[in-house]
Structure formats: C-alpha cells, structure tokens
Predict the structure.
Amino acid sequence: MSDLAIGITSFPALLLLIFLRVPIGLAMFLAGLVGLILVTGDTTIPFARLKSETFTTFSSYSLSIIPMFLLMGHFATLGGMSQALFKAAEGFLGHRKGGVAMAAIGACAGFGAICGSSLATAATMSRVALPELRRSGYAGGFATATLAAGGTLGILIPPSIVLVIYAILTEQNIAKLFLAAFIPGILAALGYVLVISLYVRLYPGNAGTRPRAAWRARLRGVWDVWPVLIVFALVVGGIYAGWFTPTEGAAVGALGTGAIAWANGGLSWDSLGESFMVTARSTAMIFFIVLGAAFYNGFLALTQVPQEIALWVVDQGLSPLLVLTLILIFYLLLGCLMDSLSMILLTIPIFWPVMQGLDFGFVSLIDLQSARLSDLVQSGAQIAPDVLAQAQAALAQGIELTRAQMNDIGLRGATEGALSRINTEQVAIWFGILVLIVVEVGLITPPVGMNLFIINTMDRTTPMAETYRAVLFFVASDLVRVVLLVLFPVITLALIPW
C-alpha cells in the first residue's frame, strides 16, 4: 500500500475510533502514530517524532492565550458580570414580547466579549437567565434553545479560542481575525433577536413579559455593567491600538477581571485556587487535542494527502465558490457529530491548502497600485505632476503600471508578490470566519449539538425534542448569515486595514 493510500485510509479509521467513543485527542494521536509506523516501517522514528512534536507544539507562544482567556471568563463569572449583563438588558427589553429572551441573547453577546468559549458562555448564562425565562412564562424548549444559540456567540464575538487555534494553524494575524469577527458577531446577535421576534408572533403562548422597569432601575443596570465595558475596551481596543499583543491582552484581561471579581467580593483565596484548577483542567483537555491533531497532521503531511487533495481539486476546474460551498456543507454535517475545536484541528490542515489553490480574486494588481498611489498622494510625497497624471490616467483605463513608472513615482508594496500575499491573507481571514460560523451552527445542530446538551443538563424537565424543534429557527438564521458572508466578503473584511 502506498503512503498516499495509507493516509487516505486513516480517515475512516479515525472516524471509527471517534464513534467508539475514544476521546478525540487520543483518537487522532493513535491514528497518527499507527500511520507513521506503517509509512516508515519502524517504531523509532514515530516515537522520536512524539518527543519533538510535543516540544514544538507547546513551545508556541501563541498558545498561552488560551488559558488566559479561560481564566478571564471564570473570573468574570465570579465577579457577577454575567448577572449584571442580563439584568441590564432585561431592564430595557423585559417588558416586550420575547424581551427576556432577547435580553438573554444580549447578555450572551456581552459575556462572549470577555469569554472565548461557547460552552462556558452557554453554561454560565443558562444558570443566570434560565430561571428568569421560566419564571416569566417562557416554554421550556424555547428558553433552552435561546440560551443554546446565545452560547454560540462566545466563540464568534472576539476574543475567541477557536479563532486563536485557526490563526496558529494557518499562520494568520490573530488581531485581524478578531477584528474580522466583529461585524459577523453583531449580525449573529441581531439575527437571533429577529428570530425571537418572529417566534413569539408565531407561537405567542410560548413567551411571557415582565413589568416595565423604572428608569432608575435601568440606569442602575447600565452602571453595573461598566466593568465589562472597561475589560472589553482594554483588551480588544488595546490589541487593535497596538498597545500589546493578543497574548499580552489576554493576560491584561485576566488580571482586570480578577481585580473586578475581588472588588465585588466574588474572588477569595479558595475560589482563586479553584479558578486555577478549572482553567488548568480545561487547558489540559484543549492542549491534548492540539497535540493529537499536530501528530496526526504531521503524519498526513508526510503522506502528502493535503497537497494531493488540493492539486486534485484545482485540476477539476471547479468554481471556487462551488468548492467553498461543498466545504461548508461538509462542516455542517460534521458539526452534527464532533465538537468545534476537534473539527478545526482535524480539517483545516486539509482544507486550507485547497483554499490557497483557488483564485477568488479579491484584489487585482490595478486595485493594489491605485490604493498605494492614493496613500502616497495623501502622505504628501513629492511626485512630478506629469508622472503622477500619466500614472493616474493609466490606472483609470485599467492599465497596470510598468516597473519604470513605479520607480519614477517611488511606489512600493504593489508587486505581484505583495498582491498574492494580500489575496491569500484575505481568503484566510474570510474562510476562517465562515468556518467559525458553520462550526458554531454545529454546536446547536441536532443530534449532537454540544450546547444543546449543556443546556439540557440545566433543565432536566424540558424534553430534548422540544429544544430541537425550537433551535431550528436559530439554525435557519445562521444559515442565512453564512450565505450573506459568502456572497459579500466585504462584510467580513471591511474593518481590516490592508
């Protein structure tokens, strides 16, 4: 059997291990280890690779962002920030039909801005909002579906642990990915609010209302959420302003939320130790999956499977949008069976080379030259008027500037190489946000939506079938958003400076 055949055969073997309920990290590690033994015909090389792969994987400075964001989310819970967010949103929306559910979505979005985990957001907000939803007369399935969908905002609204892993796998800028996720995250929250508004009109008996809150109570609620706003502005704003790197920003956020939790009386020496232990356990679980994926992906690289798949797809001459659509459909189906982190680690090393080989043509050389020339003019660069006029006329007619013209103008960073780097980066960021969204859909897609199970453990009285029926409305909203982002990449890329 050839190396390529061994690599391809490893996929059904890996899926079989997963279906047998072998932990995903261990399943990928075993598939990679056995595959390497078969390819090399020796056990020395695979076990030597285990030593080097472990060091290489965990020496990545970027991975330190994960425990920091996990710790920040735990401190935020101890500091009462989840309750404050929900109460503030409920004060303005609770008296409307479906308003308490909308408030829960708003609180999930706010908590997601200081917690990079979807499961943590769903679990935390369900403890806060689920009793209030049931007390306000909301049907069990509608209440649990709302919180399961709202929990997905934890990985979409930056910061996001899944985006950090994606950035490491594709060697992209974490800050740019966070910025690109901002508008889609807002659209997600607005889409869920729209779904709630539609649902309560179709099924008015499934939702109740609360008495209108006095303005004094509303303003008090707004005042109570100032710690969340400060932490979000400090972490995300500081990263974009260049004050610190994303890893340093995560550390600053953890320190800030810890200080707020201590000031609010939620953090003691005992709870501090428990916070470290919870963070350590979650980090260990994530890191083991990362190690298993790194070992398995190293085996795939040795067998040339990703490269051969990429070449095969390009040789078929398929439309780039068709290939992208098929990949996203695959993610939607896989999301019914696997958790988000495992999907990203398993599939990105295979699909990203395919995406790199496709030409989406986001930026042309003429567009790049025009943008760089405009920057030069605005900066007050000294350019001969006749040379400038000739260059502007050529670009207006759709003619690329020659090397001599670029030298005369002093134009830099507008070469074919620069164009290729920009297009590759834009595709990587756009694709990353799309993958994040469809992975997010998998978290609430029956039959194995992780968020659905998390919420179900909080409300044993609600049959899972009722949650399944109600959550389909939110899944439909997600699918519409995916279509919009596929057709209009500018929504994702608009905020990023190129």
About this structure: Residues 269-303 form the longest helix (35 residues). Residues 335 and 442 are 4 Å apart (CA to CA).
